[in-house]
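Lab notebook, bench 4. The sequencing result for the construct came back, and we need a structural model before the next group meeting so we can plan mutations. Quick request posted to the team channel:

Model the 3D structure of this chain.
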Amino acid sequence: MAKILIVDDEEMMLMLAERILSRKYEIVTAINGFEAIKLFESEKPDLILSDLMMPEMSGYELHRILQEKSTEAVPIIFMSADEGDENEIKGFELGAADYIRKPVRPDVLLRRVGNIIDNLDKIHGLEVAAETDSLTKMLNKAAAQKKIGEMIEKSSSGALLMIDLDSFKLVNDIYGHAAGDKVLIKFSELVKSIIREKDLAGRMGGDEFVAFLKNVTDERILKTKTVYLNEEILNYAKKLLGESMNIPLGASLGAVFVPDEGRDFQSLYKKADKALYDIKQHGKHGIAVYGTHKHLEKSSLVNGISQMRLILGERNVEAGAYYVEFDIFKKIYQLLARMVDNYKKGLVLMQFTLDDESIAPEFKEVLIHSLRKSDCVTQSGKKFLVLLMEATELESEVVRQRIFSRLRDDLAKQVIFEREKIE
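Done. Here's the predicted structure in token form:
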């Protein structure tokens, strides 16, 4: 039910307007502008119906003050016994929603107020739709950043949480996206269940969520909520997908306290993200608080080697060589070089240097699909490096010939080849 604040210094008019409108709306009343300002802040009415000419503070002045106090437009209807047009024109120029002449007719007042309330409902509905994530019905990324940012600035304290659904990709890969959507919807409901009405939460995209818990500074509260999320999402997934479902589904949380670490949303978000990364590097299914290096809870949900294998393993393996970034390639090389020392396995390092880096995308495509799944490739500027597993120099020559045979002649002329047997 919409709430209307009626402001009039004439008691009879105040009672009449209240009697007419109370049939359909919740009513609060004030006898002057000063009382109206206090009620506006405490009651947060949807619409104001105000006498225009009042002692000490006019309806115009009241509207101006309320607009300064509010971040949104304040819908107001002015009432006046003045027969002239100047006040009506001035009222609309200042942003009044409507203007009604006294004495008011009940049917006219109800219709005028009803039209404005209906229009406000439509506008509110469009705003809600624009701010809502279509799948989970939570705040979307833009709305969550804006509203949580505003709440953080106004709150004396609280906890900003980044919440990530662990191993969710495996649900999509194994059971399909329809099942994945159901898990995401359930998880969003669980996130909403751990916050209060005065808190806010939203979906940042994919399986990542954010929440702000106003005035929460006790780490034990965060631990309890973390345990609940982990237990409930796993229970739901087993009911949905079957008891044989062995995906290590759970939740990792990164937390940062306000105002300890500041009040700027973007800065706090980055800190919560660092805490989230920390817990993910230490077994997942728990919570870490930024700045404390403390893992408040680590679930024992990952308790079998088959589940750990699912976490470590690669899904949807594509044909061709394994492409990795240069730093990872270095680690792989160092490990395999140790294996050569200990187990005498054959290992060949190949290097392809391009004259022009612009041909790199085309060369990379040919290179990857000319190699085995067990071979490893990386790029560093104009250079491509390849590790051939258990290969002799003769076998590496066959590989080289295969790669160059698949290159266009003009492209092949721009590539310098080198190799070395690692022994």
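The chain has a mean pLDDT of 86.
Will bring this to the meeting.
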